[in-house]
Design goal:
The protein is α+β, with helices and mostly antiparallel strands. The chain is built from five helices and four strands; from the N terminus they run H-H-H-E-H-E-E-H-E. The chain has a four-stranded antiparallel sheet. A hairpin with a 6-residue loop joins strand 2 and strand 3. The radius of gyration is 24 Å and the shape is rod-shaped. The protein starts with a helix and ends in a 7-residue tail after the last strand.
Length: 140
């Protein structure tokens, strides 16, 4: 394994999705020479493959539960028309007790979850909002 192989491996460690042309430019070789090196590194076992890993039961999305408490004068009936317009909200449960609503939402990434959270938080008559990220789904 020479210096160019080491540079190629380092570039792949930084960004394994980098296009071949960009990798070639990074290590100072032609596209075809870089492809040959990549193939040789695969055959030698220095690169063991290209794999995606997702938790068992994963949908490939990020999910969260939002716990909502009403401000004085707030109610589920007043919030529902607003909540139904927020993309990503999948389920809403009204509860008895100190928490008034549990909202389940999914998004493609954390930025999407934060956008949903911001939209909920901007609604009138909410006094409390807590976010609980879903780490793993076991049933359903």
């Amino acid at each position: 394994m020479d210096e160019k192989d080491q540079l190629l491996l380092a570039a792949l460690r930084r960004d394994a999705r980098r296009p071949l042309v960009a990798l070639a430019r990074d290590i100072g070789l032609s596209r075809s020479a870089t492809q040959d090196r990549l193939n040789r590194l695969l055959r030698s076992g220095a690169i063991s493959g290209f794999t995606t890993v997702e938790p068992a039961g994963s949908t490939g999305k990020v999910a969260a539960h939002f716990l909502v408490t009403h401000a004085p004068g707030g109610s589920c009936a007043k919030l529902m028309p607003h909540l139904e317009k927020i993309p990503g909200i999948r389920r809403i449960h009204a509860l008895a007790g100190p928490i008034d609503l549990v909202i389940f939402a999914e998004a493609a990434d954390m930025a999407g979850i934060e956008a949903i959270r911001a939209a909920i938080d901007a609604l009138p008559l909410i006094s409390g909002l807590t976010t609980h990220m879903v780490l793993e789904q076991h049933m359903g």
